[in-house]
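ok trying again, last paste got cut off:
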Amino acid sequence: MGIRGFCMRISDLSRQAGVPVPTIKFYLRERLLPPGEPTGRNQAIYGEMHLRRLRLIRAFTTISQLDLTSVRTLLTAIENEEFPLPELFEIVNRTQLPQEDSRPDNAEALLSARDDVEQLIEERGWRVDPDAPVSAHLAQVLVALRRLGCDCDIGFFTAYAEAAERLIVRELDLLSLEGPDRAAAVARSVLLEVALISTRRMALEHHAELRFG
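nice, full thing came through this time. structure:
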């Protein structure tokens, strides 16, 4: 493997990426990070690609709190250029979703909530499978809200859907139609979701203080 751009030893790579050397060696053993170019016995040099990959892994594991299994899934999908972008983003969504609650006592409520989610999808004209994991997850949210006695029907999510659509259109506008940077596209999708949650929390603190402070 050729090293493009500047070359550095693992200690320099560690310093620039902000990742301890033992952690880098662990990523190398787990094949999350490609091997460097050998320069001698137990020695290798690393390049810009390794630095960028390390920063990507660090962002996924620290900011987005993804486990290494999810990180591996994302990295594999990024490298497989046979995946079109819509399928790549579907994989991104799946890695960030918890397991579906399929307990028998939840079945009837979940079925009703799925119908409501399907209604939302139809009203928005979205090309989303009502049985997709993202749809099922929203249905779980509805079930939990209703069981907790929260007054929040599917119509409440219209505003959420409108805001999300505006944000996603702006995000996708950043992609180059000719050979988009797949790693940057995935990183942006994962990290902007965290940014959206953080921004909502900031707005909540502000408006809660204005109303009840």
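cool. Residues 18 and 126 are 41 Å apart (CA to CA). The chain has a mean pLDDT of 90.
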